[in-house]
Amino acid sequence: MSTPSSTYRVQLRPEFGFLEAAGIVGYLRELGVGALYGSPMLDATPGSTHGYDVTDPTRARPELGGEEGRKTLATQLKDAALGFVVDIVPNHMSVEVPKANRWWWDVLRHGRDSAYAAFFDIDWSRGRLLLPVLGDDAAVNELTVDGDELAYYEHRFPIAPGTGEGTPQEVHARQHYELVGWRRGNRELNYRRFFDITNLAAVSVERPEVFAETHGEVLRWVSEGDVTGLRVDHPDGLADPGGYLRRLRAGAPDAWLVVEKILHPGEALPQSWPVDGTTGYDALGEIAGVFIDPSAAPVFTRLTAEQGARTGYAEVEERSRRLVTDEILVAEVRRIAALLGGVDPEAARAAVAEVMIAFGVYRSYLPEGAGTWAAAVERARGRRPELAPAFDALDSQVRGAPHGELATRLQQTSGMVVAKGTEDTTFYRFTRFAALNEVGGSPDRFGLAVRDFHTLAAGRAAAQPATMTTLTTHDTKRSEDTRARLAALSEVAEEFAAAVRRWTARRGLGEPALNLLAWQTLVGAWPISPERLRGYLDKAAKEAKLRTGWTDHDEEFERAVAAWPDEVLADAELAADVAAFVARVRGAGWSNSLGQKLMQLAGPGVPDVYQGTELWDHSLVDPDNRRPVDYLSRREILARVQAGQQPAIDASGAAKLLVVHRVLTLRRDRPELFTGYRPLHAEGVAADHLLAFERGERLVVAVTRLPLGLERAGGWRGTVLPLRDGEWTDVLTRRAVGDAPRAAALFDRYPVALLVRERS
């Protein structure tokens, strides 16, 4: 197997393509990275900055440098002895620019007679393919190019053979598609899409011929030895994730294979999947959780209630998911309900929606994991007892044909309801404590006990030692360092609550949930420009869908949100107050950042470093986290660290790069040290502030947690960390350490330590 020692995620885009990535290979090698892990590399929508909108899976993206550039990058990585992990997108393709997707263009031109008609999940029984490209339910004849309506079609859409004669109205009637307004499309759409993004049409990758066409190029890269690992995007959208992954594994038997499967706390990967693990959101939540003080929960709950925002997480989540089924994924719910036999159509629609709202996880994988399905049905029965006959029919028909169309489509869509309702709505409405609002997390669980962390980490080491772990991704709601500083707020909860009351009285936002999120964001990402903060708050307000949204706008409210960053930052007294509060928690945030980074990098699994996060990075949700990375400054800092510098913990972030470099290099050069997992326990009055674990018998990780509480209590006060007999050395400081080091001495330079015991 080609399991890397670690990965480094790079976001490719037209301005940073294959050759630019090749230009940092030497830096990554010196940093200690085991493999470059790149965002999607197949041809995508022109100008795409992320690549998940694939238009042609049969070629490397020309805007990134094409096949020649890809080969150059692959060769550079081989020469540097680095692996190459590629992100692949099996669920959907972009149809935003029809001509850019030759398969979609052919379907529009030839309809169900197209050679590619079966490549997309289209319900041809409902007539022509609806294309919701109009701004509203406007008439098609409003679309013209230089006054010529047919020119619009020739410019953007194909004319079917034999239909180009006659009046525009006659031509329209003979097309295989119909241009409609987005509102009608949302109700009647007859092709499956990615979530509610109509520009991303779902692909029927469960068909062998479609799999072969969409995966042939990437699997060629694997077979030729250029690619050593694959990351699979959104497997929950597939008709048969297990079957797909088995086919993929057969085509890449020796590749490292991880899936973007979002696990709810306590959920495990389906054991039949032939993969090495997930992309690491589960580890992210566990690691971040131990740096949050659970005693702060009542303070933040009271503040939330005082400000007028909702405090019941379950209620907010249910309302958010119901919004998705009733207003956003209407076409999808109706298509599923139509498959339920013997039930009144409206009752069928209600029952289907209610079960998907009730899912405790993203989806079930029937017949595997039948308990997940049963729990959702029972929860739905409890909420809507009057629909009992419809639930009975749905349960019977789904269980009776677990691979049938009804069961398949319901399972594909439940993940969309959960993700859109929870991640993309609830997390912007339930803003009690934003550090918890992360993909795969559960904001109603305020922190994680150390003993629970050890149990989960030991389980990962035993069951999935090659799974990916992460702290930041292109999809996280905020970066690891932003969350680390927010975690410190849990240690000064009363002070922060008082500050929010003070700041809100001076310049509060008019929507309570957004107001709470805005102040937390300002503190977590400080210093931040008005432009970055404005972009984030605009997205947050629209995702929350409380006062405004992506489709139905409250222009006056949006203007107030847009003006807020400038008003706050231009208010000298207020800005100084915020800056003073940030100074109060900045050091604790740095301590938390170093602690969680060391735990991730040295803990069980294959650690990923998101681009640029080897230094402090206070990014927010995309596109903020896709900003260019300054590699020149990182090279300079790395050179000083390699020369022996012991950087101070300061705003430069050099101390974090030291930790990243030393741990990744050790993982790459001495992999035998990073096996197994055993909790270690400190002794003394401050023992709860020291989290430690052992890998094998010769490597120990020790970090400081809840540093502000430790400081208030008087410091370490004689607390010690008992170790196995032997000569121990701290990899970070190069100092010798005894077998019962005092915490005060162990952490006098850095709040973390990585200890190695050499054989006698």
Entry summary:
With 760 residues, the chain is α/β, with parallel strands linked by helices.
Helix content: 40-55%
Weakly predicted, low-confidence segments: none
Per DSSP, the total helix count is 28
Average pLDDT works out at 95
Percentage of residues in DSSP E strands: 5-15%
Major sheet: arrangement of strands = 13-12-11-5-2-1-15-14
Compute the gyration radius: what is it?
27 Å
Give the structural class: alpha/beta
Morphology: globular
Overview of the structural elements:
The chain is an alpha/beta fold and 760 residues long. It is built from 28 helices and 21 strands. The protein has an eight-stranded parallel beta sheet. A six-stranded antiparallel beta sheet has the order 16-17-18-21-19-20, covered by helices on one side. Strand 9 and strand 10 form a beta hairpin. Helix 12 crosses helix 17 and helix 13 packs across helix 14. The chain is globular, with a radius of gyration of 27 Å. The mean pLDDT is 95.
Please give the structural blueprint.
Blueprint: E1 7-10, H1 18-22, H2 25-31, E2 35-38, E3 42-44, E4 54-60, H3 66-79, E5 83-88, E6 92-94, H4 102-110, E7 129-134, H5 149-156, H6 168-174, E8 177-181, H7 182-188, E9 193-194, E10 197-202, H8 208-223, E11 229-232, H9 241-251, E12 256-259, E13 277-278, H10 281-289, H11 297-307, H12 313-328, H13 330-337, H14 345-357, H15 370-383, H16 388-400, H17 405-429, H18 450-463, E14 468-469, H19 480-489, H20 493-507, H21 512-525, H22 530-544, H23 555-570, H24 572-602, E15 606-610, H25 631-642, H26 654-669, E16 678-680, E17 690-695, E18 699-704, H27 707-712, E19 728-730, E20 736-737, H28 743-746, E21 752-757
Parallel strand pairs: 1-2, 1-15, 2-5, 5-11, 7-8, 11-12, 12-13, 14-15
Antiparallel strand pairs: 3-4, 6-10, 9-10, 16-17, 17-18, 18-21, 19-20, 19-21
Helix pairs in contact: 11-20, 12-13, 12-14, 12-17, 13-14, 13-17, 14-15, 14-17, 17-22, 19-21, 19-24, 21-22, 22-23, 24-26, 25-26
